[in-house]
Amino acid sequence: MAEEMLDALDRAGVRLTGPRRKLAALIERREGHFTAADLLKDAGRRRMGIGRATVFRLLELLSEQGLVERIDLPDGTHAYIPCEPTHHHHLVCLNCGATTDVDDCGIEAVTHEAARRSGFKIEQHRLELFGRCPDCRSAN
Amino acid sequence: MAEEMLDALDRAGVRLTGPRRKLAALIERREGHFTAADLLKDAGRRRMGIGRATVFRLLELLSEQGLVERIDLPDGTHAYIPCEPTHHHHLVCLNCGATTDVDDCGIEAVTHEAARRSGFKIEQHRLELFGRCPDCRSAN
DNA sequence: AGCACATATGATACCCAGTATCAATAGACC
DNA sequence: GGTCTATTGATACTGGGTATCATATGTGCT
Questions:
Q1: B79-95: buried (b, 16+ CB within 10 Å) or exposed (e) per residue?
Q2: Residue B21: what pLDDT?
Q3: How do strand B89-93 and strand B78-82 relate by DSSP bridges?
Q4: Is the CB of B96 under 7 A from strand C?
Q5: Cβ B100–A118 below 8 Å, yes or no?
Q6: pLDDT tens track for B33-81
């Protein structure tokens, strides 16, 4: 998956630098969603001297390529989650932070209906689902 | 509508103070979404000596009562919009910032389907729709 | 109407996410 | 290897939001 990211960066025509490789590896071993601060801490713990700005810059790049997406948790904080570059939505476990993607399951109909009722022309939407993942459900 | 907010605050058992009344009036005359900074500017322009913290505190109160909701614009910034305290979703005009509410138009089916596919138990969801309002559509 | 007291206020200082700047570094292509 | 541009990291900054705390003010009671 770090491979996937590096490939995508390569395809995007940017340089495959040391910091980017290291960060991709760190992202890979993350589970669930993470913040920029998390990555920074990871990097710090391993004494990779990676700058704050570099982290944000990579996250931005990855997000342009659709390999990472920024979501808004219910508590108002931001987090990033690694994902596939196709259109989809996220399911986030409120307990452990695990995420999965679900692809379009009928949202089109909803946006259509909303457009019809409101007269708006709908150009984008964002759907985020929060709950408990299978593990956390059975764990109690 | 300022009335509505004040009533709700009263019902919530908090004090109906001067600053709260003034801010409610300012929110009332806002169109579309606004930021805390917008309110602060409004208040400053009218020389009401209202503190930064007070604005945030009121927004939090109103949001607990469901009279205001914090949304995340596509550019990642936060905004607040006044709304009814029932469950619903927001349509935001990307051009002028106007908003409307749409109530549930089939989202349940979507969340059900997502739950079925993923094994998650879904507890909350957030749906935000962005586009062009009727006015901005016809204005071009 | 006046009092007492808790709640709310605003000034200030602070925290955290993210961005701008810029001289120093290091990929990529020759 | 050398060159040249993209990238880096240190630093400083911005903007949203929160903590603190002495002062001010609604509210309930009489």
A1: bbbbbeeeebbbbbbbe
A2: 98
A3: unpaired
A4: no
A5: yes
A6: 999 999 999 999 999 999 999 999 999 999 999 999 999 998 888 999 9
Instruction: Write down all domains in chain B, each with its CATH number in brackets.
Output: 1-85 (1.10.10.10), 86-140 (3.30.1490.190)
CA distance B68 to chain A (A): 14
Taking 3-state DSSP, the helix, strand and coil percentages for chain A, each rounded to the nearest 5, stand at: 45, 25, 35
DSSP state of A74: T
Does B1 score more than 80 pLDDT? no
Instruction: List the single best residue of A71, A120, A122, A136 to mutate versus B (max B Cβ within 10 A).
Output: A120
Facing A113 at nearest CB: one of B72, B105, B121: B105
CA of B50 to C1' of C12 (A): 14
Q: How far apart are CA A67 and CA A63, in angstroms?
A: 6
CA distance B122 to B132: 30
